Amino acid sequence: MSVQKAVILAAGVGRRLSGAVPKALTPVNGVPIVHRALERLASVGVRETVLVVGHRADEVRAAVGVEFAGMRVSYVLADRYDTTNNAYSLWLARRHLTDDVFVLDGDVVFDAEILTRLADSPDSAASAVAAWQPGMNGAGVIAKPDGRIDRFLTAYDSNEAPHGALKTINVHLLRAQYLRSEFVPVLEELIDRGREDEFYESVLAVTAAKGVVEVHAVDCTDLRWCEIDDTSDLIAAEYSFSDAAQRLSFLEQLHGGYWRFDVADHCLMINPYFPPKPLLRRLAADLETSLLNYPLGQAPLRQLLTAATGTPEHQLVVANGASELITVLGRLLDDVVLIVPGFNEYEAVFARKRRHRVELAPPDFAFEVDRCVDTAVRARAKAVILTSPNNPTSRAIPKEDLLLLAKQLADREMRLLVDESFIEFCPLESTVQTELDTHPNLTVIKSMSKAYGVGGLRLGYLATADTELRDLVRAELPVWNINGLAEEFLRRLPGFATEYRASLERVRCDRDEFYRELCAVPGLTVIEPDANFILVRLPDGWHAREVAEAMLSRFGILVKDCSGKSMPDADRYVRISCRTAPENHRVATSLAAVLATAPAGLDAAVGF
Q1: Which domain holds residue 99?
Q2: Are 157 and 137 spatial neighbours (Cβ–Cβ below 8 Å)?
Q3: Cis previous bond, 27, omega within 30
Q4: How crowded is the C-beta side of 128, counted as CA atoms within 13 Å?
Q5: With b meaning 16 or more CB within 10 Å and e meaning fewer, what string describes 126-136?
Q6: Residue 152 in contact with residue 140, Cβ under 8 Å?
Q7: Is residue 299 domain-resident?
Q8: Beta strands in 144-236 (DSSP E)
Q9: Mean local confidence (pLDDT), 139-147
């Protein structure tokens, strides 16, 4: 390549990172940002790189040296790094802006192919860009159909950026003639006018506006890059630049936030059709008030929940998600019977107490009332805990069986706790929440994240006529355990009851079609679902881990590996959440493509 020089602007403080090291030395999967950039530059033939340093400059110099990966490295000190911006930093390095040069920010990790594409551009100036994705913010461009940049944008985020805008990657190529004739003179004029707090893209913006010299947008949407400003960016970069084999484990350790990554999330369960846009707009309008003021306490929150659910206020406990309730119950209850497989969090909180299991057996995972009661009696248990619909089987226990179980346990002075977090995806008559008055030993636990599509609000509740348990749980919770935005959601919810019911019907229709599509995949055993997710048993020779890894690495689809569940042959099962019909169809076709190949380690001679 003809480009043999680069300037990296690495003077920044990185206040939104941990501060343990200078920003340029922040490790991404163990490799400092600046080291990774230097390696990329060296790999495409760059022979000299200039580092503009400022914050903790001596540490950066010591970590890089005067030669790195075969390149010469020199330094320019930005002594006013804390009061100026990167236009001033680049101005300090202006004597190096004489030959074709890559200019890049010191907080970007990227694929070397980005540099190659820039070098292939014949224009006097070229900027690497990518499609604007949710969560991105900062500078961008509007480009013409031929790739010429029409104008530069500043301080936008993904919700505000104009239609068709592209996000700048902060990696540019500036040719020698352009540097001499326009870029450096305009940059010097900018600093002479005292505009030391500007970004150097301001100079490129002037060039684009004049239209005499072309600035080309080089599309790198298909390549990896991350601008690291805060810890969320750092997490995204570590995922993007990890080995494909490590990515599934990386995401699993996060337990959420998958929307930040370039994956289709079919692991966590939501309602993709709720909340509707009008409700979201009202919540957005309420944001300032919700953020600046204390929310209501427990008693008035229960009244709001009664208006939304119809359950009497005296039976309710409002919680910061069902997880908060599960943790509290783990402190309050001893000697319990757990129905497995089930939600792993119940097993986790009762792991150090006396617990007994009743296993649901494949292939249909049917629940037997008598076997459950017999186990509880032999164990002298005080409570039975189960989920219906079950997670991960997606099978609901018939209402009449649950009420029979509640009665038989009541006769033995035992409690029954039923987690109905997914019951709204079943017919309305499936819930036992309407039977609490006649079954005082019965308690229902609900997460509102799934059916209402508001996982980020962390809303849940407990409903029971068991006043002793109700009061014990209430006493365990703080007065303000629900944030103001969640409060406003509850307040607005009754006005959207019609839209809510319609959304559930759409989910059921999509789920049933998804079930039929999965049943058509050769070799797959599909458990007929009652909730908004589906459990599948893989063909012989296949294991859940390799299928989940293949779905992620080949198609960017995240599904749940059930190997950690308490069930026979758990490593043969995958749980897949339902989303919209097109998304579900993509999962079915992708899964079929994965299973059309031979499983790892299986000899092709046996029929594959």
Answers
A1: 5-233
A2: yes
A3: no
A4: 30
A5: bbbbbebeeeb
A6: yes
A7: yes
A8: 149-157, 166-174, 215-219, 225-227
A9: 92
Q: Which two tokens stand for residue 482?
A: 């629900």
Vertex 463, ends 458 and 469: CA angle to 5°?
105
Same domain, 122 and 207: yes
Residues 481 and 567 placed together within one structural domain of the fold: no
Question: What does the alpha-carbon distance between residue 479 and residue 462 come to, in Å, rounded to a whole number?
Answer: 16
Q: What is the pTM of this model?
A: 0.89
- Distance CA(455)–CA(396), nearest Å, equals 22
**Mean pLDDT on 49-63:** 97
> CB of 479 within 8 A of CB of 298?
yes
**Domain end residue (candidates: 473, 495, 517):** 495
Q: Are residues 489 and 503 in the same domain?
A: no
Residue 584 domain flag: yes
CA distance 52 to 34: 11
Q: Which two tokens stand for residue 468?
A: 């002793």
**β-bridge partners, 156:** 138
Domain count, the chain: 3
What is the rounded distance in angstroms from the CA atom of residue 507 to the CA atom of residue 461?
23
CB neighbours of residue 447 within 10 Å: 25
Q: Distance between CA atoms of 407 and 376, rounded to whole angstroms?
A: 13
Tell me the average pLDDT of the chain: 94
Residue 337 binned pLDDT confidence (cut-offs 50, 70, 90): very high
Q: Which tokens in the block code for residue 491?
A: 């307040």
Question: Residue 606 pLDDT more than 80?
Answer: no
* CA dist., res. 234 & res. 257, Å (int): 13
* Sign of the dihedral through C-alpha 95, 100, 105, 106: negative
